[in-house]
Design a protein that fits this description.
With 283 residues, this protein is an alpha/beta fold. The chain has a single domain, classed as NAD(P)-binding Rossmann-like Domain (Rossmann fold, 3-Layer(aba) Sandwich), CATH 3.40.50. The protein has eight helices and nine strands. The strands form two sheets. The protein has a seven-stranded parallel beta sheet with strand order 3-2-1-4-6-7-9, sandwiched between helices. Strands 5-8 form a two-stranded parallel ribbon. Helix 1 links the parallel strand 1 and strand 2.
Length: 283
């Protein structure tokens, strides 16, 4: 039996993973700002501990980790799932909107991870799954600020993997594409109220497309949740796990685009090094 610690467990991927983990006999510390929503969804269960957690509160994150350890004796898998989106052109986003999405998506993830890591390091074991997005691999008009938070998650995850693998702890950043969850609903996606007409063909177009895509996304969230359940037992897990056919296509296109940039600008890129020292014929 494994013990999962899941943030944002009241809905979306977090709730689905909670359900599947309980079904296979694992223990779950399911956290949310309002833990009653978790109890209402899953009822009373001997392997379920619903805990109040606002990930932006570092003191509360530490307390939640301590409660989890006291209840189940350890944390085997940390699923950093809590987060929300922000749609709008970069210029359209206010400072308050930018700060809010960073507090949850980046600083919140750091609060929880730093709270759980001492327990994992003590036993030299554990898995950390950080939910990113295809937006964490390539930026897109209309999601620039949100993508920047997920780029941060990607960088943190790569560094954590390098730091923690020697200690027996594995880190993987999960990169979903568009999945049929409530992510494009108002409960998960903040839309900047400022609209600048100059961005109508770029960020403005994305606003319209997102409305039509809501609940018509190609990805099956139940299948994604099952992949994560199975992945928790995978030996030598990769640092990145792309999920969704749209994610695969986007990554392949990004690779091709970057390869073209290197092909065209390679000479300029390498020209910035100090010149090589001439060989000393007397040596």
């Amino acid at each position: 039996m494994k013990t999962w610690f899941i943030t944002g467990a009241s809905r979306g991927f977090g709730a689905l993973v909670t359900q599947l983990a309980l079904q296979q006999g694992d223990a779950v510390v399911a956290t949310a700002r309002n833990p009653q929503q978790i109890i209402d969804r899953f009822g009373e269960h001997p392997n379920l501990l619903a805990v109040a957690l606002d990930v932006t509160d570092e003191v509360q994150a530490r307390a939640a980790a301590d409660v989890a350890i006291a209840k189940f004796g350890g944390i085997d898998v940390l699923l950093n799932n809590a987060g929300f989106g922000l749609m709008g052109a970069v210029e359209e986003a206010s400072a308050a909107e930018v700060e809010a999405v960073y507090r949850t998506n980046v600083f919140g993830l750091l609060n929880v991870t730093r709270s759980v890591l001492p327990h994992m390091r003590k036993v030299r074991s554990g898995r950390i799954l950080n939910i990113s997005s295809i937006g964490g691999y390539r930026g897109a008009a209309g999601f620039g600020v949100y993508s920047s938070t997920k780029f941060a998650v990607e960088g943190l995850s790569e560094a954590l993997q390098a730091e923690l693998e020697p200690l027996g702890i594995h880190v993987t950043v999960v990169e979903p594409g568009y999945f049929r969850t409530d992510f494009l609903d108002a409960t998960s996606l903040s839309v900047s109220p400022t609209i600048i007409e100059d961005y109508a063909a770029t960020a403005g177009r994305v606003r319209n497309v997102a409305t039509g895509l809501n609940h018509n996304q190609p990805g099956d969230p139940v299948r994604l949740a099952q992949v994560l359940i199975d992945f928790a037992d995978t030996p030598n897990p990769p640092v990145r796990l792309p999920l969704g056919s749209d994610t695969v296509v986007a990554i392949e296109a990004k690779h091709a685009s970057d390869a073209a940039i290197l092909g065209k600008w390679r000479e300029v890129s390498v020209s910035t090094d100090f010149p090589a020292e001439p060989a000393n014929p007397a040596a």
